[in-house]
Amino acid sequence: MVIGLQAAQAGLQQGEELLRRGRNAEAADLARRAVVAMPGEPRAHYLLGMSLARQAAGQPDLRDEAASAFQAVLDRAPGHPGTLLHLGLLLAENGREADSLPVLDRFLAGQPAHPRARVARANALQHLGRVADSLPDYEAALAQDPKLRAARSNYLLALLKARRVEPAMAQGRMLLEGHPGDIRALALYATAASAAGAADVYEHLVRPDDWPRAATPFGAAGPERDALHEQLIADIRNHPTFTREWDENRRAIRGGAVALDLLQSPTETVLRFEAAIRAAVDGLIDSLATDPADPWRFRRPKSYDFVMWGNILDGPSHQSSHIHNLGWLSGVYYVAIPDSIAAADPDHGGWIEFGRPGYGLPEDLVAPEHYRLHLPEVGRAFFFPSHYWHGTRPYRGTGERISIAYDVHVTEWQS
């Protein structure tokens, strides 16, 4: 629909007000009309870029249109600082790190003391493997704003990748002092402790001889459990979130398939499964005495939500070593295990492994004597703190390794 210039200008002003109020989709609709009516007006393209960028976290298909809108602003106003900042952030945070760097550099040339832009540049450099280059940007950002929790966590990760163990220990302590129980800080600080030869600190943080805890929530093998597993497998395969494609920066599974969110539109069988796992978690929480000296167990959950997803691995597919940043307690239940995954396998193919660091960290930062391997068995559940590094080993042979993983997301702590 063609609209007049006066109406387009009024629509542009209305769209800017909607953007300020967080009504991004409505703002985008008005911005598109303004772009058609006033293609040479940078404000119209900027409004479109901003309204789409704010929606892109939940709607990734909008990222390219947002980037194109920002580029249209720069074509008309090359030095527009807001556009340089937000285009750089959009690219850096959505998988186009290499493209983000020249844009962020242009912005920082005019505003070198901008913490968010410094952090975005540092994160992009680290993602691209330029770890040493990323450190000065993290340091500059944290000097400007010491409360940047995510930046300090990523700085700690970069220090470990650079094998700067003592500064990493200091950053880990600082994070945990400011944010007790921070899962990522616990994992990275424990990794730094092992690398520094502080085995007592590592064992205090991880307690590798205490975890994982095992349970059989549906009892021994038999027709009833077999029927449950058969239905769970069908529910995983038929779930609306089942996919063989995902962002590997956001999930640890390598190959295979995953049902991303089993509690979205859950079946009766999935709800029955959740209830059994919840009962096991409740029992485990009740058995854990609080310990003021334990940075994970110094408090107990009062209430929590579950997140559950189904994993299907086949042979060379596996889970890379990872932690669960948003969890407190995590776990896995084994629905199907092929015969090729066996206790007698000297390579421990298909086993779950704890302790080996992930996220691009040098594996030898954690001493091999801290690694633990456990054989997966059908009907068995494992539970462990969410900061305990874990992954699976690839296995040879045919047959699928099917499991359901879960996180406890605490909503309230006991006083």
Automatic annotation (TrEMBL):
Entry-linked SMART domains: TPR (SM00028)
Organism from which the protein derives: Marinibaculum pumilum
Annotated signal sequence range: none
The protein's name in its UniProt record: 2OG-Fe(II) oxygenase
InterPro entries in the cross-refs: CHP02466 (IPR012668), TPR-like_helical_dom_sf (IPR011990), TPR_rpt (IPR019734)
Entry coiled-coil feature ranges: none
